[in-house]
Write a structure and sequence with these properties.
Serine Threonine Protein Phosphatase 5, Tetratricopeptide repeat; 3 domains; 357 residues; 70% helix; PPR/CCM1_RNA-binding; globular; two-stranded antiparallel sheet
Length: 357
């Protein structure tokens, strides 16, 4: 009963209350079991309280409660998230010392941590050790290594692992495809990335909006705007709804080519039908107007944002300031500062929106 209550507190991220309850259990002579310890250790790690979590881990051993693979996973994950790979590895090796056989999840957590830290040699060593123990890597394990290899430019090695997945299993999922696609694009292998995308379609695998957004983004970057627009327009027929990021990509692509009307049409569509524009959307539009010398339109958009009670916060203000400096426009437009960033009253909000320099 108390364990369930503690679990609820942890899910609600009320860690201090969970800690107090745990201490009350100890004071009342209630011996927490491995499940109770693991719940609190996991919650602490997710909150970044890894030192406290490790102290609790040591306490459970002192109390004669043996950690499970779940307990070890929680503590390892906490260290990995903070990039403290030496500590994560120590916890992993402690498993063997205490006779707890690591499972696929334990190995995958450590591998992912090494990959995020760009320590691919260590990740591959753990990967091979895992397989030598007769454990079969899962999609998450492979995806972590493929992502890590792509991040350090070892795309050929990433492709080999991807082909190994296709040959032996487990089959790559959407996430794996997106990782490799992004890796190929980022490392300048545009044609290979497009072949992989086409193969995915030919194999009957349904790409999600994340993958389509990645492809559309890189089509725009490669100056294939017409193809990007065709793919964007085809999304409804595939029963896929463009998200804010997808719209932002197309808006930026049009702005880059000076196609302001097309960008404006997409923004209007977002405002009328959704998805809701975000700070990135407006930053792209404002930057595009500045770069295309459409200062009046930039001013109008700022006013429209205020009319819609869009939060013109410090980020927006800083962005506009940076536009003047980064694009070499400050010399030309410094005399128009008061016009570009007027003090005004947002309609209906009762709040003065002041974008000051």
């Amino acid at each position: 009963m108390l364990t369930n209550y503690l679990m609820g507190l942890c899910k609600d991220k009320q860690i201090p209350k969970a800690q107090n309850l745990f201490e009350e259990m100890i004071e009342k002579g209630i011996v927490p079991n491995v499940h109770t310890f693991s719940i609190l250790i996991d919650a602490m790690c997710k909150k970044g309280m890894v030192k406290k979590a490790h102290e609790l881990f040591d306490l459970m051993i002192e109390r004669g409660v043996e950690p499970s693979t779940i307990t070890y996973s929680a503590l390892m994950d906490g260290y990995c998230f903070q990039g403290r790979m030496d500590e994560a590895a120590e916890v992993f090796h402690l498993m063997a010392v205490r006779g707890c056989e690591p499972n696929v999840i334990n190995y995958s957590i450590l591998i992912n941590g090494y990959c995020k830290a760009k320590k691919l040699d260590e990740a591959m060593q753990i990967f091979e050790d895992m397989r030598s123990k007769g454990l079969t890597p899962n999609v998450i394990t492979y995806s972590s290594i493929i992502d890590g290899l792509c991040k350090v430019g070892r795309v050929a090695a990433a492709q080999e692992l991807f082909m190994e997945m296709q040959a032996r299993g487990p089959s790559p999922n959407d996430y794996t495809y997106n990782i490799l696609l992004d890796g190929l694009f980022t490392n300048g292998s545009y044609e290979e990335a497009m072949r992989l995308f086409e193969k995915m379609d030919n194999d009957g695998l349904e790409a999600d909006i994340v993958i389509y957004s990645t492809v559309i983004d890189n089509m725009c970057k490669a100056n294939n705007l017409d193809e990007a627009k065709k793919l964007f327009d085809s999304l409804p027929s595939k029963e896929l709804k463009p998200n804010t990021r997808t719209f932002n990509i197309m808006i930026q692509g049009f702005m880059k080519e000076g196609l302001l009307q097309e960008s404006e049409n997409l923004l209007t569509e977002m405002l009328d039908k959704g998805p809701t524009p975000d700070n990135v959307t407006y930053s792209i539009m404002i930057r595009g107007y500045f770069q295309n010398n459409e200062i009046d339109k930039a001013v109008q958009l700022l006013n429209d944002m205020a009319d819609r009670d869009f939060p013109l916060n410090a980020t927006n203000t800083s962005s506009v300031k940076d536009l003047l400096a980064a694009d070499g426009l400050e010399g030309k437009f410094i005399g128009l500062v008061d016009k570009i960033l007027p003090k005004r009253q947002s309609k209906g909000s009762g709040t003065t929106v002041e974008l000051d320099f």
